[in-house]
Each structure stands twice: as C-alpha cells, then as structure tokens.
Amino acid sequence: MAKRLLPTLNRILIEKIVPPSKTNAGILLPEKSSKAMVAVGPGARDKDGKTIPVCFKEGDTVLLPDYGGTQVKLGEKEYHLYRDEDILGTLHD
Amino acid sequence: MAKRLLPTLNRILIEKIVPPSKTNAGILLPEKSSKAMVAVGPGARDKDGKTIPVCFKEGDTVLLPDYGGTQVKLGEKEYHLYRDEDILGTLHD
Amino acid sequence: MAKRLLPTLNRILIEKIVPPSKTNAGILLPEKSSKAMVAVGPGARDKDGKTIPVCFKEGDTVLLPDYGGTQVKLGEKEYHLYRDEDILGTLHD
Amino acid sequence: MAKRLLPTLNRILIEKIVPPSKTNAGILLPEKSSKAMVAVGPGARDKDGKTIPVCFKEGDTVLLPDYGGTQVKLGEKEYHLYRDEDILGTLHD
Amino acid sequence: MAKRLLPTLNRILIEKIVPPSKTNAGILLPEKSSKAMVAVGPGARDKDGKTIPVCFKEGDTVLLPDYGGTQVKLGEKEYHLYRDEDILGTLHD
Amino acid sequence: MAKRLLPTLNRILIEKIVPPSKTNAGILLPEKSSKAMVAVGPGARDKDGKTIPVCFKEGDTVLLPDYGGTQVKLGEKEYHLYRDEDILGTLHD
Amino acid sequence: MAKRLLPTLNRILIEKIVPPSKTNAGILLPEKSSKAMVAVGPGARDKDGKTIPVCFKEGDTVLLPDYGGTQVKLGEKEYHLYRDEDILGTLHD
C-alpha cells in the first residue's frame, strides 16, 4: 500500500499526468504529459532559520526543467521530487 | 492549444520576433530578430525571503546574451526563459 | 556493548528496519526497508551561531536519498548518519 | 538604424575611440585607443535588493582589463559591455 | 618534554585511547579505539567576528569521521586536530 | 603624454622603484626593488554597498606577493594594479 | 639593512627559532624548531568592513600547518606569513 510522503524544506512532489487527447479523426494520441503537484514542502530556510514559504500549492500544473529532480516510488506509483526554485513556471489555460 | 506560462522567481519568458525589413530595392530581408518579453516572473528572493522585483515589464525589447536561456515550447510556439540578471539591457528607438 | 550516540549539529542517526511481510500464499518476503530515526542532533547553526532546530523527531519514518549518508557501527548494529537537509520527506500511512 | 541600449544592473556600455595622433614628423599614427562610456546601468543589487549606484558616469574615459567584456553590435557600430567592478580605473589628463 | 597545545578557533585536539577489552575466554583483545578530547578551542567566529562556542568539552568521547583531521605530535604523543563541525557525535554508555 | 589613472574600488596602483645601492667597495649594485603606491582606489564595497576604505595611502612602501597583479602602461611608464587585500604588508625603516 | 614589516589584515609574520637542545649524554641535537610571532596584522575585516582582531600577540609560540604560508625575506633573515585562521594553536610549557 502506498504511503503518503510529506516533502521536507522546499521539496515538491510531482506526478506526471497523461491526459487523453483526440486527433481530428477521433484517434486518441498521448499529449505531452502535464505535471501536477501532489505535495508541497513547508519551504526552505533563510539564513536566520526562518521558513520561506513555497510559492506553489497542491494541484498546480507546472513546467519542469528537462534535467534534474529525484525519482521516488511510493507503492505502485512513480513520482518526482523537485526543489521549488527549479520549477520553471505554472501553466494556465 | 497553447497554455499560458507564468514564470517563477526572476525568470522571464522571451519570444523572438522577426520583423519585416526592406532593402533599398524593395526586397524584404530578415533583420536580426529582436526579442520581446511575453511574461515576467515576480522576482528572485533575497536572503530574508523577500521578493526583489524584476526590473523589466511585459512588452520590453531586450538584448540577450549569446549563450544561456532555456528553450520552452507552449502549443505550437517556441519561447525562451532567461533569468532577469542575464539580460544585457533594454533596446529603445 | 553498544554505546549511545548523540549526533552533532543537524546530523540524524537512522536505523533501517526490515518489517515482516506476507505474500498471498502466506510466504514472508522482505519488503523494501523503511527507515526510522534513532537520534536527532540539536540542529545546525545559522550565521549568528544560533541553533536552527531539526524538523524531525525520534521515531519518524523517512524517505532517504539514494546516495550519501555516513555508515556508523555502534556495538553490533549498523546505522547511518544524514544531515537533516538531505532527507527527502517523512512517510505517513 | 542603431537602437539605443540601456544596460541592466551594473553593466556599462563602452565605445572604443581611436583619436588622431601625430609623430614629430607630422605623420598621423593610431594611438592606443581610449575607451569612453556610452551608457551606464543603474547598478547591481545588494543582498536586500537595493541598488548600489555605479561609480562611473557617461563620458568617463576608462582603463579596461585585457580580457572579459561582451561584444555588442547596435546598428553599424560595435560596443562592449563590462561590469562596473571589472573596470580598472578612470583616466584623467 | 611535551608542550601543551591550545587549539585556535573551532579546532579540537583528540587523543586516541585503546582501552583494554576481554573475550569470553578471558583473552584481552584490542577494542576499536575510542577518542577523548584533550583540548578544545574557543570556537569559530561568525560573520560579525563574534565567537561561536564549541559544543564539546574536554573529556568528551566522540565519534570521528573516517577521513580528515590533522596529525599533530607533541613530545612523544600523537594527537589529531579536528574542526568541531566535522565531529559526528558524542558517545555515551 | 601619460594620463593619470584613478583606480576603482580597492585597486592600488604600484610603481617599482630601483634605488641606487652601494657595496662596501663602493660599487653600485641594484638592490631588490621596493614598491611605492602611486594611487589608491576609494575601497571595495561591503554587502550593503558601503565603501570599505583602503588601509594604505599614497607613498606607502609595500611588500607584494610573488604572483598576481595586473600590468598597466601609462605613457612611457609601467605600473601594476593590485587589490588592497593582496598586499602582504607595509615596509618601514 | 632589514626593514620592518607590518602585515596587513589577518596576516602574521612568523620566525622559526631553532633552540639549542641536549641529549642525556650532553650532545646538542637540533630540536624540531618552534615558531615565534614577530609581527601581527590588525585583523581581517568582517562583511561590514569592521576589523576582527587577531587572536594572537607578538611573542606567542605557535603550531603551524605542514603546508601553506608565504616565504618572505627581510634583509638577511627569512620569515613566513600566515593568515591567523590557518594557525593550529598556541604552545605552552
């Protein structure tokens, strides 16, 4: 059974979501996967030990860098951990 | 359909614009492309976690370094992400 | 006889626990080991020499990075020391 | 047509000027070019995000290091960008 | 004649002690040596020049990293100097 | 004609002086050259942008490191630029 | 004639002293040389430009690291310059 992970500091747990997508002819094609945040750490600490809140929230869809991140397996599912500062931006419709 | 990207921290989304240009003989030649800012992050954080505002605004035309930046594809269009401190200057007529 | 180790600064003493696990047929299989914290240092010091408390407590089950940590032998048992900032997150049911 | 560049942060736009020079016999020889500042950025930011003013002003003649700087072409003319901290000194008659 | 060394800053003078140890059959075997602190520096300085006291005291038994430290000979005896931040923890019965 | 150089930040302009020197037999031998400060910058900036005054003054005779420094030619004369922190000490009779 | 050197910042001028030493049979053997401080700089500067006093005084006998230091010749005598933070400790009888 998958355990729930609470990331430390400014780490963010990311799950890749492959949404269904359709061609004009009605054939389903895998669209380039978007990423959703599953869990967000409390934030890094500044030089005085105070926590700097992470500027993301659970459920945000984000653009990730091509490299980096740590692969994590919880139960059967696969996730990735990123530092908040490495996330390129948030995606909106 | 292209999603809208809100860059994080001091990242800036740049779009290359190739304006039409004319020779004396009236032939259109591609001028060296200028760059326009499409979206600007809120700014990096200082050592206390406070945000340092980015010194650019959407629509600014900028001079970019020869190297660096991260290529980003949103829908059919291609963009580049730069840190504000890596942008060399703003261009004015 | 094993001595008790009190870690310094933000070091954390980790013990790997291999819990018993059963297949459907009732055969015991070693599950991927979880990690429990045995002892937690007082915390790193900030730039003014003040202690930044460690954000873990004894008994927490944690997710560790694939690399890093220092192997430590106390009496017959084997432990690992990690810095608190290198621990990826805490695991909850 | 050359655009005007406003440098960012502590960047400084330098133009090399080759002044006319005469030998005793009246023959013009190229003197080692002096450098004039064309445009000066507002200044780098300190650790709190405040701007540290650049200690040069437009029109200053400066001594440049042998290496470094970024070549920039604006219209037909060629310039160089330097950080203010890399400029060795100002020249006076 | 051995001189007494007062370590500077956060340096700590360590002496390796090989205590006698017995097997069940009563044969003495060398146990893995424990380390005792002989002299402790006043502490490193923070960024304002204030001293950050060392979190050890003379006589503490400590766990050392496998690598690092500076070998020092005072008279006939051999010691090692470590920085306080490199010491893994204190050992207690 | 030599221009006057005002060094920036904590740079210091040094001129090597080869004073005349005599053997017991009255033969002049070149003594190892001493160095005199010709011009002193205002000082480096601290992290808040404030200037930290240079702890030398024009005319000081100094001991230089064997390596480092930037060679500078002003008119016919040759000088060297050093950072104040790289100068080993001042020499006094 | 040897000039007097006043070291800058936290540099310390060290002179190696080889004291006479006797075997039981009365033969003089060179003892491992001790080091005495000849001159002490005013101290390094902290991040605000304030001087952090050196924690040694002229005449202290010190333990030096095996590597590092800058050899300096003043007149006929040979000295070494060290940063105060590189000195391992002070020696006392």
Describe the structure.
The structure is a homoheptamer of 93-residue chains. About 5% of the residues of chain A have low confidence. The termini of chain A are far apart. Chain A is mainly beta and 93 residues long. The radius of gyration of chain A is 15 Å and the shape is globular. Chain A has a six-stranded antiparallel sheet with strand order 7-8-2-3-6-9, with no helix packed on it. In chain A, strands 4-5 form a two-stranded antiparallel ribbon. The first copy, chain A, is 0% helix and 44% strand. Chains in contact: A-B, A-C, B-D, C-E, D-F, E-G, F-G. The interface between F and G is medium-sized, with 19 and 20 residues.
Helix fraction bin of chain A: under 10%
Total number of strands of chain A: 9
- As residue ranges, the low-confidence spans of chain A are 28-32
Major sheet of chain A, described briefly? 6 strands, antiparallel
Shape category of chain A? globular
**Element-level helix/strand string of chain A:** EEEEEEEEE
Mean pLDDT of chain A: 83
Structural class of chain A: mainly beta
Assembly type of the chains comes to: homoheptamer
Residues in β-strands, percent of chain A:
35-45%
